[in-house]
Each structure stands twice: as C-alpha cells, then as structure tokens.
C-alpha cells in the first residue's frame, strides 16, 4: 500500500495582505481600548452620546456587511468550481452590499454633521466619528479590492488552485466585517 504525501498547508491569499490585516486589527484594537478607557472615565457623557444614536441604520448596515461576506464566500466557492460568471455575480453582490453600507453610513454621518456634531463636540463624538469614518474608509478600500478582483475575473483568470486574489479580497472583506461587528457592539449596542 502506497502512502500519499501529506498535504501542505498554506495561508489563503497574499501573505502581505495578512500582515496588513493584522496591523489594521492592532490599530482598531488600540482605538477600541482607548474608547473603553474613556467611556469608563466619563460614563454619563458616553451614555448621553449613545442615547443620541439610532440603532436602525447601523443594524441594517450590519446585515449588509454580513451579506457582503456571504456573497464573497459564494464567489470563492463558485470560482473553485470553475463557475466564472457566478463568481463575478457574487463579487458584484459584495460590491452592492458595500455600496449600500456606504450610502447608509454616509447618510448617518451627514445627519450628525447637520446636527452640528464634530470631532470637537465632546469625547464621545470624537470617538464615534473617528471610529466610524476610519471604518468607512476601510469599506471603501475593500470595495476597491473587490472591484479589482471582479475586473480581473472577466477573462476567466480564477480557477481551482489559482485564486490568490479572490482569497485576499475575501480575507480583507472579512476583516472589515469583523471590525464593524466589534464597533457596532461597542459604540451602538453596549450601554
């Protein structure tokens, strides 16, 4: 009986992106720790600020990002099965979910600006705006990455065993999703 060689494990996607993801998670982690520390120092201020936040749009945004994550996983599955058109459609749905997130978050941020809320309003609003705008920019970058993969997929480039770019885009998108779930829980839900 002949033994088969053990399968070699590999990190999906590009290693440089994983380093970038870890660095971004560290930055957000420091931001979240600073938020938690400031919240502990000024609980009444943070409670009042959170009381001015609606949960409807952020909850819908959470669902949109989760839908984008599901769609990019479906794209990976489709490309793995050699189904190019389906893979591109799933990537397009990821972009649609991301665009919906940006539209709703932009609407929310404009509403805060119209109310006169700025980075200097108080410490809660400084954290709220800094965290949500920083995350907003990460969603934009995620959409640029997914759009590039969608564009490159038009010639059938992604096949089983040759999907590094799709895996890289998925890893980044999931990081953006994870950060939002933490931000949503910390800033919007935890009272």
Automatic annotation (TrEMBL):
Keyword hit for Transmembrane helix: yes
InterPro entries reported in the protein's UniProt record: Cyt_c/ubiquinol_Oxase_su3, Cyt_c_oxidase-like_su3, Cyt_c_oxidase_su3-like_sf, Cyt_c_oxidase_su3_a-hlx
Subcellular location: Cell membrane; Membrane
Transmembrane regions: 15-38, 59-81, 87-104, 125-151, 171-190
Keywords, comma-separated and alphabetical: Membrane, Transmembrane, Transmembrane helix
Bilayer topology: Multi-pass membrane protein
Name of this protein: Cytochrome c oxidase subunit 3
Biological source species: Chromobacterium aquaticum
């Amino acid at each position: 009986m002949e033994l088969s060689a053990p399968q070699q494990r590999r990190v999906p996607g590009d290693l440089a992106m994983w380093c970038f993801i870890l660095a971004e998670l560290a930055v957000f982690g420091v931001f979240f720790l600073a938020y938690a520390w400031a919240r502990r120092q000024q609980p009444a201020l943070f409670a009042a600020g959170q009381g001015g936040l609606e949960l409807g749009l952020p909850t819908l945004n959470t669902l949109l990002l989760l839908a984008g994550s599901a769609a990019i996983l479906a794209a990976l599955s489709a490309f793995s099965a050699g189904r190019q058109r389906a893979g591109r459609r799933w990537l397009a749905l990821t972009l649609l979910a991301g665009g919906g997130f940006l539209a709703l978050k932009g609407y929310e941020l404009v509403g805060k600006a119209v109310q006169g809320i700025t980075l200097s309003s108080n410490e809660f609003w400084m954290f709220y705006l800094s965290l949500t705008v920083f995350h907003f920019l990460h969603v934009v970058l995620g959409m640029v990455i997914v759009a590039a993969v969608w564009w490159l997929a038009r010639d059938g480039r992604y096949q089983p065993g040759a999907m590094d770019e799709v895996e890289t885009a998925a890893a980044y998108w999931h990081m953006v999703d994870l950060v939002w779930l933490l931000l949503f829980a910390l800033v919007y839900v935890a009272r």
